[in-house]
Amino acid sequence: MNALKTAIEEIFGLFVEDGSLAIGILVWVAIAAFIFPMIQGSDNWRSPVLFGGLVLMLVENVRRSAKKHFAKQNRH
Description:
Elements: H1 2-34, H2 46-75
């Protein structure tokens, strides 16, 4: 029974934590779509900045997930 509860919590956690990641991605893509074109200069920086922002959001999401996971593990 405990294993089933843990599995359900982990699956639910995937969707909840990824929800914040999904919102962040949508906001960053909207910024890229509407703000980046207004900035004058070369277009060569736009793709790396978009990619870098997405990578930073993913790293932060994984860091938060790992922190929660290890904190939960240490309680048991």
